[in-house]
Design brief:
single chain, about 190 residues, alpha/beta, about 25% strand
């Protein structure tokens, strides 16, 4: 599913000169590293709250010879002071936020449940906690005509679209994966 997010964003930004991209909850860096590899001449920042995970993302960027193209930060993007410290707005915000509802954890396959950090998966009671938070802060972080790209959990497209509309987003497009499942949502802020 994340590959579809990367492909969608790459296609949308391929003709934007000096594009700025923020990856919220970068984890191991797969989204921002893939975008840097695919699109080249842009400014990339990946942010995550876990400094150990950010260290892994830096290592992964170095392995792909992209360490000089991507700036990784450790911190909570939802902290207003950190948002101000970025001192910039972005053409694109991308994220694969935690979206598993708490009630679904027991049903996850053991290889996911036992080896993935709970914080990387847990999206609150309904799985939508981080969509709400990202939709709330993104208008202030996006350039005029900038867009937000989010990976979706199965069955969450309608709820996420509603959250985005309530936060002032428009031009909302939901993209299906090869199995016909809604997996990515792209939207523009009305700011």
């Amino acid at each position: 599913e994340t590959e579809l997010l990367v492909e969608t964003v790459s296609e949308k930004i391929k003709n934007i000169t000096d594009c700025s991209v923020l990856d919220i909850g970068t984890g191991s860096g797969n989204i921002i590293i893939s975008l840097a590899h695919e699109t080249g001449d842009s400014n990339y920042i990946g942010i995550d709250i876990d400094e150990n995970i950010v260290a892994v993302a830096r290592e992964n960027a170095a392995l792909h010879e992209l360490a000089d193209k991507i700036r990784f930060l450790t911190g909570d993007i939802f902290d207003p002071e950190l948002s101000l410290l970025l001192h910039r707005k972005f053409d694109v915000i991308a994220s694969n936020p935690p979206y598993i509802p708490e009630s679904d954890f027991a049903e996850l396959p053991a290889e996911i449940r036992e080896f993935e950090p709970h914080s990387a998966l847990a999206g609150g009671d309904d799985g939508l906690k981080y969509y709400r938070r990202i939709a709330e802060i993104s208008p202030d972080l996006l350039e005029k005509n900038g867009f937000l790209a989010l990976e979706l959990g199965m069955g969450q497209a309608d709820a996420v679209e509603k959250i985005l509309r309530q936060s002032g987003f428009a031009d909302i497009e939901v993209i299906k994966d090869l199995n016909g499942i809604d997996r990515v949502v792209i939207s523009r802020s009305n700011n």
